[in-house]
Specification:
67% of the residues lie in helices and 3% in strands. By secondary structure, the chain is mainly alpha-helical. The protein folds into five domains: 3-158, no CATH class; 169-289, no CATH class; 297-441, Tetracycline Repressor, domain 2 (Orthogonal Bundle); 459-548, no CATH class; 568-651, no CATH class. A hairpin with a 2-residue loop joins strand 4 and strand 5 (339-341). It is elongated.
């Protein structure tokens, strides 16, 4: 029995044993609607189907089955034809033509994935046609596999169809064509962008984003999961976008275009396109890689950074030069809220911060930011030298200028401490060290006369007139400080407080240094000195507390602890107090302990060794748990080692 197939306008004709019978035509929706009315004539009018509704339903069913069903029928015809011993050449030719017509319809359905059909079909209907076309592709792939391994003479000339590979090639051509047409499309205007390159890159990037969103929102559901159509499209768009950007990068770019291209490559494309909220986690971004090869990317980034470095260096040098010219001309700093102010720090921070902000959007390797922050480091070194030279000169505006720049120093310090990702740790330390030196220069400018008076006043400590209270050393000193510090009323409160806290520490340091060099010969002298120390500590603390120095009040407590060591007589009590001080201040060394114990009379060599040993055994093992500022490390007592050796107190 021979089976042949012919196609005509009326439908598919099947001939069997010489007789021709017509396969059923596609259903006529109008007839179906009429039949339904006849079958349901007893139904209430409200239950009847509307003609338009029935028509739409049956048209939809026809379209759903159009490609998928035709593909299935052609495969059946193929199986029937090639199951015969001698297939008819006429029938074989006709079947080949029908397969070619099917493939054409499939490719038309795929080709219109992103375009609106000129017919009256809705977008949803177009997607259904695409779904049917994809199903047909899968059917044909399965049929290709069935013919694999058959004798060559028995295989249809159209097998294998390779619909899937053809589909993928078509997608690649579609993607390339859509991106090319996008670059030539001026309908969207200039997008507010200043150059042809920027407009081209922007349009291509937007096309990639819009099409990938269309795929994930609509097209993806037309494909089976194993085809991973979203990543297939993402790879094709990435490849085509990358190829065009590589051409542009090799053409020689102006700095502005270079910056914009890097912005798309390193920031917008990976963050705003591939990681769009509808795409994030669905695209295998690690497989895509960068839009440019690393060598090309490095060249562009180096071009951008070299230009940006030159700009930053020029801006910073110009700002410092302008500021310095103002100092040397005798100009007074401006007052804001009645405090001396200089805009230098704000200008510098704006230059660095804006450059780093642009850098983060343009450069992929964030460690390269150090090429920009290195110029901040250089600027601070130049800034410090300029201030130091200015202070050395006999300028009438030194004090107000330094007041303004103490504020600058604080602003720059806060900014650098807050920069956690742009500066290396080495850069941060060097910058902060430079700012500390700059602050010290300003501090010395205000406290140089005070230090002279401190030395004079403290030379009277531990004298008989100080011990009996007839010489009010600390009262005289604090009166002098009060007079000197009235000139700081136009210094910003935060900076004034920092300066006073440093002065508070300086006063107590000199006090302790003087105490440790004192030779006490009697028990009475120790007790009287301890009482006077506690009184002095209270007066000093009250003075600086009234000035707003709440952060340095621990200095008074420390002085009282040292006074208590002097006052106590029992070795065990002295030991407990010494251990307490050592635990509060980990920088209290063995030399400091020995220096304090040398002030005590009545302690035997064995007592001294026992106390020193106990201090070492009971120190805090984890120094990081103690947050006391360093103090004793600033008190040099090298002289005590010789004294220890002379007394035979080595443990």
């Amino acid at each position: 029995m021979k089976v042949g197939v012919e196609c005509s306008a009326g439908g598919v004709k099947e001939k069997r044993d010489g007789q021709r019978t017509r396969l059923p035509k596609l259903k006529n929706p109008v007839k179906i609607w009429k039949n339904r009315r006849q079958q349901n004539h007893t139904h209430a009018a409200g239950d009847e189907l509307d003609y338009e509704e029935a028509l739409q339903q049956d048209q939809q069913q026809e379209k759903d089955e159009q490609l998928e069903e035709v593909s299935r029928r052609l495969i059946i015809r193929e199986e029937q034809l090639f199951s015969q011993d001698s297939p008819s050449e006429e029938e074989e030719d006709q079947l080949q033509q029908d397969f070619e017509a099917l493939r054409l319809q499939i490719w038309m359905a795929v080709h219109t994935t992103f375009t609106t059909s000129s017919s009256s079909s809705s977008p949803q209907e177009q997607l259904e046609v695409l779904r049917s076309a994809v199903a047909s592709i899968q059917q044909q792939e399965v049929q290709d596999q069935r013919w694999t391994g058959c004798l060559e003479g028995r295989v249809p000339v159209w097998r294998p169809q390779k619909c899937l590979s053809t589909h993928n090639i078509l997608l690649q051509n579609m993607v390339e064509s859509r991106l090319m047409k996008t670059t030539e499309d001026d309908s969207s205007g200039n997008d507010g962008l200043s150059s042809p390159l920027k407009r081209e890159v922007c349009r291509m990037g937007k096309r990639v984003k819009e099409d990938l969103l269309t795929v994930v929102r609509m097209v993806k559901d037309c494909y089976p999961p194993h085809m991973d159509i979203l990543n297939l499209y993402a790879g094709l768009y990435h490849q085509s976008f990358s190829a065009r950007l590589t051409e542009l990068a090799a053409s020689g770019l102006e700095t502005d275009d270079c910056s914009y291209l890097l912005f798309w490559i390193n920031h917008y494309y990976p963050n705003e396109v591939l990681n769009h909220e509808d795409l994030v986690g669905k695209i295998k971004t690690a497989c895509l890689g960068s839009l440019l090869l690393q060598d090309h990317l490095n060249q562009l980034e180096d071009q951008f950074l070299t230009h940006k470095e030159d700009k930053v260096k020029l801006w910073l040098n110009t700002a410092l030069k302008k500021e310095e010219e103002g100092w040397l001309s005798g100009r007074q700093p401006e007052l804001i809220d009645q405090y001396c102010f200089s805009p230098l720090a704000i200008d510098v921070i704006q230059v660095i911060d804006s450059s780093l902000t642009e850098f983060r959007c343009v450069i992929g390797d964030q460690t390269k930011a150090q090429r920009i922050t290195a110029h901040l480091e250089s600027f601070l070194s130049s800034y410090k030298k300029c201030v130091e030279e200015f202070v050395k000169g006999n300028h009438s505006n030194v004090r107000p200028v330094i007041k303004a720049h103490l504020v600058c120093q604080q602003q720059l310090r806060d900014y650098i401490i807050g920069q956690t990702g742009s500066l290396s740790e080495q850069q941060r330390h060097r910058c902060l060290d430079t700012l500390s030196a700059l602050w010290d220069c300003g501090y010395r400018c205000f406290t140089c006369p005070i230090h002279i008076q401190l030395k004079l006043c403290f030379s009277q400590l531990w004298t008989s007139v100080w011990l009996d209270g007839s010489l009010p050393v600390i009262d005289s000193l604090l009166d002098f400080l009060n007079q000197q510090l009235t000139d700081l009323s136009d210094l910003k409160p935060g900076c004034r407080q920092s300066l006073l806290c440093a002065l508070h520490e300086d006063v107590v340091l000199r006090y302790v240094k003087r105490m440790m060099k004192t030779k006490m010969k009697s028990r009475e002298q120790q007790v009287g000195g301890a009482e006077r120390m506690m009184e002095d500590a209270r007066k000093i603390n009250d003075f600086f507390s009234e000035g707003g120095c709440t952060e340095s009040l621990w200095l008074g407590e420390m002085l009282c602890s040292l006074a208590e060591i002097l006052r106590l007589h029992d070795p065990g009590s002295v030991q407990l107090e010494m251990v307490s001080v050592a635990r509060k201040f980990p920088d209290l060394s063995d030399a400091h302990v020995s220096a304090l114990l040398s002030l005590k009379t009545g302690l035997s060599a064995a007592d001294v060794r026992s106390i020193r040993r106990s201090v070492e055994e009971n120190r805090l093992l984890d120094v990081s748990t103690n947050h006391s500022p360093p103090f004793f490390s600033k008190v040099k007592v090298k002289w005590i080692n010789n004294k220890i050796n002379q007394m035979g107190l080595k443990t």
